[in-house]
Structure to design on (975 residues):
């Protein structure tokens, strides 16, 4: 009974809806890719979602103290995975070494590392007694925990994932009540580091190209700007209601590279129109809203930080992905959560939903009763579970 | 603590509102712009050229028809998108077609102020043909390996075919690429371009990013061009060209230069052209599939005689004694008695200079009939001088009559680039000018076609036609779309008696006059052919040889530049044509 109750439908329904939409969009955009087997990508993504749902249910049915116990193994596994890709075991795709071949399986450890980062940060910052602020010493410790996976991702180099990790870490620090002046200092240091990297030419040429093209997409429409221009044209040609699933000529003609992965929203844009693309955004927003709700009701600071971290991660990743597709952000290769093709991404996202469900369920077993979902109450009112 | 979560809540929500706003802007506000861009991306508008109409002779025998040829074309816009701007593709294509790469590159480059032929004068967005008549196996390699040949198309396309080789090349004309299509640039191909071309169709194709066609969006089939039925007769045309060739060869054997020649065969009563031959000539199939630069240089080279020129309509020479028909008409109209007799001395003094007969022969007192038959010059000198003396400073009656015969202006034939000939346009200060004019010398130039229309008017009783080669336009379904009738350009201001008298006089020329040698053995009793020889002096060149002949049905005019005496070179060619017209066996 407890297991079923843990499956919060307000999280599960939008998440599954996103995954199912994703499967359809992947199918539509890959039918022409393998002419002898048009359903190849459909089957693989359906399998990815199925595996992800199993993982979600399994994770959701643990209480979040069990999750707390998993923190170290998950974090260690994430970092080891990132380390492994840098060895000859890793495969280079699109200029960054981010894939790990495990027999027939292709794993992208940087996806798992995002969840690992959230777990690690929450463990460091949320492990104190339920007081207002973590001790000062925990902040540098948290930075250290964040620096390991972040540094390894930078070495691939995978700028998009690094950016999302940095933003996620920042989000966790904010929710953890770290003083604003610390946060301000960190942001300033980050900006300075970015400026220095640009100044010292530390970026790879293709990364520089992407940034330049973002400044002026028309500068090189056949070259580096091709993706940006084609994405806009494809999504814009959908109009209000789209051309109908499987009826997009831009999608069918494969004008947008990486359309089934990072540019999956263009398929929705062309074939399902504004209604479809906006629907995906609304579904994502539902998941995030519920995640933040779970964070607000979490029974422990740890749970709150994990939930908020997941929300921050998914928000930044979704915003960066949608932003690059609609020309509001430079092109950095990050998938759209739940929707984009890719086993590592889908399974990690659904696992994160499982984590959110577990935290939410834990707070319901020990309801504060006084919590009304607004800023009226305080954690001080909650019973403490530090010793549990 | 809650305040920070609330802050995150607000941040997330506002971020999503921004993204939704941007989506609305891209998909709804700017929809038209992006939809158009997408259409440009994935829809290819392909023009389906209409099959060009055929050109056939009077009996429906084809002069120009179409055959399909496997044509290899390159699409510059696709090529330019290749990393090396398509050099590698052209190199592969060069190996496959066994044509030097530079040659393909030259054909596929766009014409410009500094880019000479071969080059592509059409649209850069249209596939440019680089090879025609490619064999099927080679074409299949291109079709089956699109990844090796991006931007290269191999497809069957109709091209012009000339079943009779170089027959009537100048009359038929040729096609050359211009702007967006291949169009008629000379001859009937140019004159009837609008009818022959038909209406091109179009096809909107949905393509993928590699240019592969996914499906057809819309299709508008082309309407084929109309068939042009001409009044030409392939057999007569062949005979005329053969006769001209033989006449030129024979003249050269006699030491003449004989570098240009033309023959016109016209129906005297209708103004329709039955045959029109020109030398030098060329094979019009050199234009098919883009002309070779060496061929183009040869066709336009003056040293090689500019074989592109149609001498019959574009060449002009002094007419010599064939002109005496107009001078006779002018004299009679001015008041000289048609049946009077006139002195034909060996020399005649005009003003302060002596003008001589041919070889200064004195024929004594003769009538106009004899004056025409023996081609006496001095009779006409006297007419011209008298008229000049009586009407000083005024327009000479012979000049007015020449204009009435249609000289000095275009006949309006349905062929492009016609020369107007030339007549003096001012009063003569010196009587010698009038004397020269009376025998077709001096400041007069006529085209063989002009002379043919003038003689047709003489033969048919005075109707001057604007001649036509085209007879009718017939649609693909066999329906006659338009009938073409030679319009009447004027009437000769010459009495029927004068015309009949002149005809009768000229009928004796082949019998006993200057063309008697050429017509020896021709059954003139059964086929009374009349005619007039002309031997026109050209300064610094050998004489131009003319023979203008006619009967009730046909007019045959032959001109051989630098061919010598009219009776010696042009008349035998005319006789050969007449022999063919009436099925008379050769001598």
């Amino acid at each position: 009974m407890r297991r079923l109750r843990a499956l919060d439908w307000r999280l599960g329904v939008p998440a599954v809806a996103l995954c199912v939409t994703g499967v359809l969009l992947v199918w539509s955009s890959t039918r022409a890719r393998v002419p002898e087997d048009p359903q190849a990508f459909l089957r693989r993504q359906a399998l990815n979602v199925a595996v992800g749902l199993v993982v979600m249910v399994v994770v959701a049915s643990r209480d979040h103290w069990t999750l707390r116990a998993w923190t170290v193994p998950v974090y260690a596994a994430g970092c080891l995975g990132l380390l492994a890709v840098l060895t000859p075991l890793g495969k280079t795709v699109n200029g960054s070494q981010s894939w790990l071949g495990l027999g027939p399986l292709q794993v992208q450890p940087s996806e798992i590392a995002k969840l690992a980062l959230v777990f690690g940060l929450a463990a460091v910052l949320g492990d104190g007694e339920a007081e207002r602020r973590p001790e000062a010493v925990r902040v540098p410790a948290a930075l250290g925990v964040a620096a390991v996976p972040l540094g390894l991702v930078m070495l691939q180099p995978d700028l998009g994932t690094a950016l999302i990790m940095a933003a996620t870490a920042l989000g966790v620090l904010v929710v953890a009540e770290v003083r604003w002046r610390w946060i301000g200092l960190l942001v300033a240091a980050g900006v300075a580091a970015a400026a220095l990297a640009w100044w010292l030419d530390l970026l790879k040429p293709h990364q520089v190209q992407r940034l330049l093209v973002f400044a002026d997409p028309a500068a090189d429409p056949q070259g580096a700007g091709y993706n940006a221009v084609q994405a806009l044209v494809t999504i814009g040609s959908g109009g209000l209601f789209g051309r109908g699933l499987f009826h997009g000529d831009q999608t069918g003609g494969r004008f947008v590279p990486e359309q089934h992965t990072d540019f999956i929203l263009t398929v929705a844009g062309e074939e399902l129109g504004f209604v479809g693309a906006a629907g995906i955004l609304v579904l994502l927003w539902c998941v995030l809203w519920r995640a933040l709700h779970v964070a607000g009701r979490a029974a422990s600071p740890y749970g709150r930080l994990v939930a908020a971290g997941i929300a921050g991660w998914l928000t930044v990743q979704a915003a960066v992905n949608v932003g690059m597709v609609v020309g509001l952000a430079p092109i950095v290769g990050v998938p759209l959560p739940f929707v984009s093709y890719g086993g590592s991404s889908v399974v990690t996202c659904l696992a994160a939903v499982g984590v959110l469900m577990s935290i939410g369920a834990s707070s319901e077993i020990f309801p504060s009763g006084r919590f009304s979902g607004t800023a009226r109450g305080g954690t001080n009112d909650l019973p403490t579970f530090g010793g549990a | 603590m809650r305040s920070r979560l609330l802050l995150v809540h607000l941040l997330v929500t506002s971020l999503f509102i921004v993204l939704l706003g941007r989506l609305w802007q891209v998909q709804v506000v700017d929809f038209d712009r992006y939809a158009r861009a997408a259409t440009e991306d994935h829809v290819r508008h392909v023009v389906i050229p209409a099959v060009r109409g055929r050109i056939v002779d009077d009996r429906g025998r084809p002069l120009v028809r179409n055959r399909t040829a496997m044509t290899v074309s390159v699409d510059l816009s696709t090529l330019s998108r290749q990393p090396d701007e398509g050099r590698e593709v052209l190199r592969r294509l060069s190996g496959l077609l066994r044509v030097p790469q530079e040659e393909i590159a030259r054909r596929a480059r766009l014409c410009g102020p500094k880019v000479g032929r071969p080059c592509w004068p059409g649209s850069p967005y249209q596939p440019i043909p680089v090879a025609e008549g490619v064999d099927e196996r080679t074409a299949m390699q291109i079709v089956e390996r699109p990844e090796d040949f991006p931007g290269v198309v191999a497809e069957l396309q109709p091209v012009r075919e000339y079943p009779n080789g170089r027959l009537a090349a100048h009359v038929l004309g040729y096609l050359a690429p211009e702007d967006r299509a291949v169009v008629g640039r000379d001859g009937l191909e140019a004159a009837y371009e609008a009818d022959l071309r038909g209406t091109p169709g179009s096809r909107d194709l949905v393509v993928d990013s590699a240019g592969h066609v996914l499906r057809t969006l819309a299709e508008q089939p082309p309407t084929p061009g109309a068939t042009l039925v001409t009044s030409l007769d392939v057999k007569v045309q062949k005979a005329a060209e053969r006769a001209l060739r033989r006449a030129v060869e024979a003249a050269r054997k006699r030491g003449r230069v004989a570098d240009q020649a033309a023959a016109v065969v016209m129906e005297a009563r209708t103004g329709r052209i039955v045959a029109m031959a020109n030398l030098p000539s060329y094979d019009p199939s050199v234009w098919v599939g883009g002309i070779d630069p060496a061929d183009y240089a040869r066709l336009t080279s003056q040293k090689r005689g500019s074989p592109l020129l149609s001498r019959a309509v574009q060449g002009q020479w002094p007419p010599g004694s064939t002109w005496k028909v107009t001078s006779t008409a002018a004299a009679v109209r001015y008041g000289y008695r048609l049946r009077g007799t006139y002195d034909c001395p060996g020399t005649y003094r005009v003003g302060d200079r002596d003008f001589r007969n041919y070889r200064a022969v004195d024929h004594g007192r003769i009538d106009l009939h004899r004056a025409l038959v023996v081609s006496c010059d001095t009779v006409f000198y006297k007419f011209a001088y008298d008229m000049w003396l009586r009407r000083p400073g005024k327009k000479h009656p012979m000049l007015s009559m020449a204009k009435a015969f249609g000289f000095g202006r275009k006949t309006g034939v349905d062929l492009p680039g016609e020369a107007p000939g030339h007549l003096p346009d001012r009063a003569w200060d010196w009587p010698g000018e009038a004397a020269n004019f009376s025998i077709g010398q001096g400041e007069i130039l006529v085209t063989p076609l002009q002379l043919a229309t003038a003689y047709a008017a003489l033969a048919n009783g005075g109707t001057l036609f604007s001649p036509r080669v085209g007879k009718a336009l017939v649609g693909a379904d066999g329906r006659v779309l338009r009938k073409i009738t030679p319009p009447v350009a004027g009437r000769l201001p010459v009495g029927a008696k004068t015309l009949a008298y002149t005809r009768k006089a000229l009928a004796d020329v082949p019998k006993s006059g200057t063309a008697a040698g050429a017509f020896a053995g021709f059954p003139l009793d059964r086929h009374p052919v009349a005619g007039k020889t002309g031997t026109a002096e050209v300064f610094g060149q050998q004489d131009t040889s003319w023979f203008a002949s006619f009967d009730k049905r046909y007019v045959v005019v032959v001109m051989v530049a630098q061919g010598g005496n009219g009776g010696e070179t042009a008349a035998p060619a005319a006789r050969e044509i007449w022999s063919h017209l009436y099925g008379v066996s050769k001598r």
Remarks:
- Confidence is low (pLDDT under 50) at residues 367-388 of chain A.
- Chain A has 14 helices and three strands.
- Residues 264-297 of chain A form the longest helix (34 residues).
- Residues 2-365 of chain A form one domain.
